[in-house]
Amino acid sequence: MRRRVATWLRAAAPVLGAALLIGAQATPAAAVTTTAGDAAGNAYTRDSVRAATWNMCGEAGGEWASAPGYCPWRNGKATDTGLDKPDGKPILSYDGPRTKMQGVVNLINKRNLNAVMLQEVCGGRTPGDLYGTSHLDELDALLPEGWSIASAGVTRPDELAEEPERPTVELIDQEGSNCRGDALTGTLGVAIAVKGEITWKSETDFHTPVNAGLSMSSGTVLCVEVAGWENHLCTTHISNFDEDAKSKPGQPADITQDQADAYYKGQMDKVVDVVKKFPSVVVGGDFNTTRADRIQPLYSLMAECDQRSYLPGDTANEVTKLNRTSAQLDANAGYLSYENTSSKIDYLFATGDFTGCDSAVEYGDRTDYLVGTQPDCQNIAKKCVPGPEAYSDHTPLYGYTQGGPVLSWKLDGSADAAVGGSGAHSGVRTGGTDWDLADHGGALPLDGDDTVTAAGPVVNTAQSFTVSAWAKVDPAAGTSAVVAQDGSRISGMILWYNAPDNSWRFGMPKADADGWSIDQAISPGAVKGEWTRVTGVFDAAAGKTRLYVNGVKKAEAAHLSADQWQAKGPFVVGRDLVNGAQNAFFKGRIQRVEAFGYALRDDQIANHSGSMTVPTGENIQLTGEVGTRTQGCHQAQGIGTAASLTPTLTATVRHPDPSKDVWAEFSLWDNTTSTQILTLGTPGSRSATTVKGQGTVSLTVPTLAPGHSYGWRVRTADQTTNSTPVSANCHFKTPAA
Q: 78 and 161 in one domain?
């Protein structure tokens, strides 16, 4: 556990870091990734974090099912390698650690995860141990290229003291209690694996007393930063001493309930202190309690993924811990009978909201261990056989955070007009005339027989989603579809102008069939010849479609679960599909089409349609060892080194109105001398370029002092002197002279 980096994290931070968490929403940080399919690099976006937290019960506990703390695949089946140790004993290999980690990889693949947070796993190598394996070595071997792993050690209660820290930077922590068991080597701890490059990590230890009558470990908070990710990730394993409020045999001091409660609160206080320093963060772990009040104030600061349902039939607050109780045993400790019990003690929080969450209960150990089923499952034969997906006595809890749009097409006539969004969807234009570069910042003219089409579906019409576009209907136009997604016989969703009653409509058919049985939200009073922002939302859990005009909710309609189906055809701008035929070709102009894989709330749509976006930005180039190099956009100081004394600060800015000129204003200060170099809104702070509607802008700063630490932030501004709140603070060092 490397406290040196954790000390950086605990450096003095502006109040901004805490304030941004209020209401479970965060100001976007100025460090994000370029989306796939965006060759010009202009569409930086907040990608969704698809993370799971999972206690693998990987190291301690009994060797047969009824023994205390038993968990499957701690050792597994032993195989003689044919080699001998120096003492002549055979070297055995065990399939347990790899089997456990194969379960993690199976979960990643099945749920399309890009991050996993693990507790009770072994990493690295125990000094002098040449024969065992570690969970993280096995996981690293099983994961494909592009993944990276960091870990932090914990200390078991039977240790005499916490182990001393090494001064070097380690992604896989070597400090903590050694893992036990014939199969394992390495340090017991927590770990985070991500699909990306971990550029920085911190560890903040709890320092709960060891060897003091407590039967649970002294843990840590592990946090990482990933290249190109706006969100930081943190994991922890909190010990609950409720059942330990008494002296252990042989210990000199009694542990009172008040002390036990104080130990728990002390851990929670450290978790909160750490995560409040990050503007955008996902936190997961084993909190060892079913009581939400003990996990406060996280519930007040952040969203917990499984507190609500996301689809019809989705259960909230699902179980994550499985136990066998009320056991009747035979003379050899085999189970004659027991009861299965369960609880929720694992949690996943985020400063933003989630689009889905579930407990993968199929990965928990619900094996039938009765001797009537497994006669050898007892303390003599030790041959209990877990079920095929029984990897732990915990089930993994996974959730997806709200990301940026999965599709974001400017449709403004630029070279990248029909690319952008985290889904890597590119549009192909058919028919039509030249782009209109003058109208409203550039627009797609449609004359009643042309479209822009993605290669396949963009949203799942059986789940929640949002679609939005700017549209201007020609005065002579008939019924015109702005966006739709094809089914086989009819579009699964349609956002359109309806000519007979001069209304905007958003509708979803009840079935993929001929005819016109469609649930639709209707807003009368559409104005032809006027640019209008129209947005359609489907909330699957509520069973409703909603229609917004210029950011204001105008109507909603029921679209119940029995009528929800998935349209698997292409996403189309400029027409729909009815009775198997292309229909309602748009006549007018369309620009800035976006689609989200979740239902935006009323306030999000109002902000999206009427407020300039807090700028996001591309990293300045930083150098340094992996594990210390950082994108710099958390509230710490002095991490990462710029490549030169005149770095270029870059940000992506966006105005809700594509016709408006927009730029960035930068603030830059010297942390070493407390000198302000650039001030927002003053000469020299404005980006070198201005863009119309949205784009990437930059500013090369004056020559800086070598070896100093600098901080910077940025805001979006336009010609009407409007400006957004500032981004998160970013920090870097300059190279030494």
A: yes
